[in-house]
Specification:
Elements: E1 2-3, H1 15-28, H2 33-41, E2 56-60, H3 63-73, E3 77-81, E4 87-88, E5 96-97, E6 103-108, H4 113-125, E7 128-131, H5 137-149, E8 157-159, H6 167-175, H7 182-209, H8 220-236, E9 241-251, E10 254-263, E11 266-267, H9 276-287, E12 291-303, H10 311-322, H11 326-338, E13 340-341, E14 347-348, H12 363-376, H13 411-414, H14 420-435, E15 441-453, E16 459-471, E17 504-514, H15 523-533, H16 541-550, E18 554-557, E19 560-563, H17 565-577, H18 584-598, H19 604-625, E20 634-639, E21 646-652, E22 655-660, E23 669-670, E24 672-675, E25 678-681, E26 686-690, E27 697-703, E28 706-711, E29 720-722, E30 724-728, E31 736-741, E32 747-751, E33 760-761, E34 764-766, E35 778-783, E36 787-791, E37 799-800
Parallel strand pairs: 2-3, 2-7, 7-8
Antiparallel strand pairs: 1-6, 4-6, 5-6, 9-10, 9-17, 10-11, 10-16, 12-15, 13-14, 15-16, 18-19, 20-21, 21-22, 22-23, 24-25, 26-27, 27-28, 28-29, 30-31, 31-32, 32-33, 34-35, 35-36, 36-37
């Protein structure tokens, strides 16, 4: 255990070595051309003079990144991976001394002993140590903790930063080492301590008042509140009926639609026509009346390209276009950044650093994009000047936008070396990068207004609007499936019309609609909302979304977030007792303060003091005043079917349930539903199977890891049994495959003989042999984009679409 010396830690200044660099460069100019060529062929330490003739040591976070760097640096360098953080606050206690300027106590992370020993040993032999962790707050913290752990003179330790893992970027960073960034490290440390104080101080109160194992998070709780409040809006929404009126008109035998836009001088919006009788009157009055063209307006409409990707927009577009979760997107992006094996070229970094909120592109990146556009698409697709994009407020401009590292690696060239999902994401990044430096798309838009003298003496106006893509511009490379139809507003192309054109009304119809509630958040829209409100930072969005699902505070159905009963309850308790912690503005202000610490404009200890003093008082009040949900009992009008005592509603691990008031003598419990205030028990499904021990019927139960069979005589008989598919395990040939759930709620199928047999698959097994290779069963595979398909788990290539189910057949368990 080691306490971080946050106040008096040495600033690791490579002063003497930087001076040596200047002298070394001056001497190198006098070398012969022959000597220069020899050095170029074999990279030596460009900055640091040899100390004892040892190699330089470069320390990164991941083995993949280490492999890529080793290829660039050659034999005069060793490259080691820390495999992420090596130190963190302890799990068993808070690890922060709030009475001593919030001094943290860091411990070596479990399982990192061998990694640290390996790095320390290599550092003791090295002539210089280069800390090349990622160029962000977390990377800076890793670098500082490694530096504090190494038993070498601080003068031998240097920080190097690169935005992309390419040969030129890596060598440039090694040639220009910098000091460790204290403000950036202190910003990360302040964030970590804030999160620890919130989590470790509020969670025990939730354990006491609700149940053990619950937790609160400084940022995650705000996200859950946003989802919970949106759900309340949906529940409170009262739909209103309205009617749309659309006509089919024709000119020169070409039919096209027109929609009502005005009634007399009243402009029609979607809620104007709110009575069916009125809609019918308009239909009757306008379909038999004479129609004439009042005006034809033609104009060009231009559409600008979107900025290059930042972390949040990459996650949003990946969710919308590729159906990837934010976590999956960042995992794939990390792989593309750290290096992919590209044939004889070896490990190659394909994209720039993926954690950024800057839309800036380097001059070289812009130049490469413009050259590709002109050469591949033509000069007409190239703007006269490079396009620049403004960053959003509070954006950190330390890194470029997310882009390909080289124009020499188009998606088609590297496709063979990427898996399917890596390729999809790389292709998305490639296209967005090029599109952001291309010309506008230009549409020819035509708007036609029709005057109709209604038979009811009212004047009606209908409007048709259509647009045709005249010049694709950036849409030549960046176009969604919906846009490929031409971006027509009404999905049609209008004929050539003038005010003198003959026009006929073929029909007029009305259609009833209802206003819709605000949509529940998807991953894409939640990330966008978090970003707009200043909650979290780009590097934290994926973790936020994963955490709130892992904690069972929200669940995702059909790509939309729903708060669970637990999430709603915890949110209500936090809002009542910790208003600031789950306040959007307060959390956004704290994010700004962390940014100020990183920029050197705020003190991390002062920031924590200002937060903790009022927080401590709030904790004391909450411990006394928070609802004691664990002990709350809501009476019902029902009686226990076992002992006739009253049944009450209680709160448990899986939410509300009905229990006998005679507990612990009577242990009857049941699920329930509440309809218009009336509580009804949900009958537990029985099966034809009898208990092997007592002969009583077996019931289907829902447990932490999925469904299972339990004896109906519980607690007298505690026999349980797995529900199986009836399919023999293909590995051990003894057990059967049964459905289970991970701790995150995802279903999978594994052998009933676990842990003796560890065979498991994600896809649902089907009890029918493969017609191609005769494997004993097939599986049902599902993706959001392609839907369900039947495949062979033996990977023989067999694939088919499932047959539609005509009738539902009850299944006997």
């Amino acid at each position: 255990m080691e306490k971080a010396k946050t106040k008096k830690a040495n600033v690791l200044k490579p002063a003497e070595e930087v001076k040596a660099k200047v002298k070394s460069k001056a001497k190198s100019k006098s070398k012969s051309k022959k000597e220069s060529k020899t050095e170029a062929a074999e990279i030596k330490l460009p900055v640091i003079p040899y100390v004892g003739g040892g190699k330089g040591l470069v320390i990164v976070e991941s083995p993949a990144k280490a492999k890529t760097l080793k290829k660039y640096l050659g034999r005069n360098f060793d490259v080691k991976a820390s495999v992420g953080h090596i130190k963190d606050l302890p799990k068993s206690k808070i690890g922060v001394d709030v009475d001593n300027d919030f001094e943290p106590t860091y411990e070596l992370i479990k399982g990192k002993q061998k990694v640290v020993e390996d790095i320390t040993k290599a550092a003791s032999k090295a002539s210089a140590v280069y800390l090349a962790a990622d160029p962000d707050r977390e990377g800076e913290a890793i670098a500082w903790h490694v530096a504090q752990t190494l038993n070498v003179p601080k003068s031998k330790i240097f920080r190097v930063l690169f935005n992309e893992i390419t040969k030129s970027a890596v060598l440039k960073a090694i040639e220009s080492p910098i000091e460790l960034n204290r403000p950036r490290y202190e910003s990360q440390q302040a964030r970590r301590i804030l999160d620890r104080l919130v989590g470790y101080k509020i969670s025990p109160i939730l354990w006491t008042k609700v149940r053990r194992g619950l937790s609160a998070g400084r940022v995650q709780s705000v996200a859950v509140r946003m989802i919970s409040e949106r759900e309340k809006e949906v529940a409170a929404f009262i739909p209103k009926a309205y009617w749309s009126i659309e006509a089919t008109v024709s000119s020169e035998a070409k039919e096209f639609p027109a929609r009502i836009s005005r009634i007399d001088d009243l402009r029609v919006d979607r809620l104007t026509i709110d009575r069916e009788e009125w809609a019918n009157e308009i239909v009757q009055a306008s379909q038999s009346a004479p129609w004439k063209i009042a005006s034809v307006v033609q104009k060009s409409r231009k559409r600008n390209p979107d900025p290059p990707f930042i972390t949040s927009t990459l996650q949003q577009e990946s969710s919308k276009r590729l159906y990837f979760s934010a976590k999956k997107t960042m995992t794939l992006a990390q792989q593309l950044y750290e290096g992919i094996e590209i044939g004889d070229e070896g490990a190659t970094g394909l994209i720039s650093y993926m954690r950024t909120d800057s839309t800036r592109l380097s001059d070289d990146a812009i130049k490469d994009a413009r050259q590709w556009i002109e050469k591949t698409l033509g000069k007409e697709f190239l703007p006269a000047q490079p396009l620049e994009y403004k960053n959003k407020k509070n954006a950190q401009d330390a890194h470029e936008a997310v882009r390909p590292t080289s124009i020499e690696y188009p998606p088609e060239k590297v496709k063979a070396y990427l898996d399917e999902d890596q390729f999809k994401l790389y292709d998305l990044i490639w296209k967005r990068y090029l599109a952001c430096q291309m010309e506008q798309a230009i549409f020819d838009q035509t708007t036609v207004d029709f005057d109709v003298a209604g038979t009811d003496s009212k004047k009606y106006q209908f409007r048709s609007t259509g647009s045709v893509l005249r010049f694709p511009g950036f849409l030549a490379v960046w176009q969604s499936e919906e846009e490929k139809s031409g971006d027509d507003v009404l999905g049609v192309q209008l004929p050539d019309l003038t005010e003198k054109s003959q026009i006929q009304c073929r029909s007029v119809v009305s259609e009833k609609h209802f206003t819709q509630p605000p949509p529940r958040f998807s991953e894409s829209s939640l990330i966008k909302e978090l970003e707009e409100k200043g909650i979290g930072r780009p590097s934290t969005y994926a973790a936020i979304l994963s955490t709130i699902q892992d904690r069972k505070y929200v669940e995702k159905k059909e790509n939309r977030f729903y708060p669970t009963e637990l999430g709603t309850l915890v949110t209500e308790l936090l809002v009542e007792n910790f208003k600031n912690i789950v306040d959007v503005q307060f959390t956004a202000t704290m994010e700004d303060r962390l940014d100020q610490i990183e920029e050197g404009n705020a003190n991390w200890i002062t920031t924590l003091r200002e937060f903790y003093s009022p927080f401590e008082e709030t904790l004391k009040e909450a411990a006394q005043k928070m609802r004691d949900v664990k002990r709350e009992e809501t009476p019902t009008d029902l009686t226990c079917p076992k002992c006739t005592k009253p049944l009450i509603i209680k709160w448990g691990r899986n939410g509300k349930f009905v229990a006998c008031q005679g507990y612990p003598e009577c242990r009857f419990t049941s699920e329930f539903v509440q309809e218009e205030g009336v509580v009804k028990l949900v009958a537990q499904p029985t099966t034809d199977e009898k208990c092997a021990n007592c002969g009583q019927p077996m019931l289907v139960k829902n447990g932490r890891f999925g469904r299972f069979l339990a004896c109906s005589a519980y607690p007298t008989c505690k026999t349980t049994k797995a529900i199986t598919t009836g399919i023999q395990c293909p590995e051990c040939k003894q057990g059967e495959l049964s459905e289970k759930r991970t701790r995150f709620g995802k279903s999978f199928y594994s052998c009933t003989r676990y842990p003796e047999c560890k065979y498991a698959i994600w896809d649902k097994p089907l009890k029918q042999p493969c017609p191609s290779c005769q494997h004993p069963f097939l599986v049902e595979h599902y993706t959001k984009k392609e839907g369900a398909s039947i495949r062979c788990p033996n990977k023989c290539g067999y694939e088919a679409k499932p047959e539609p189910i005509a009738t539902a057949v009850p299944t006997t368990l």
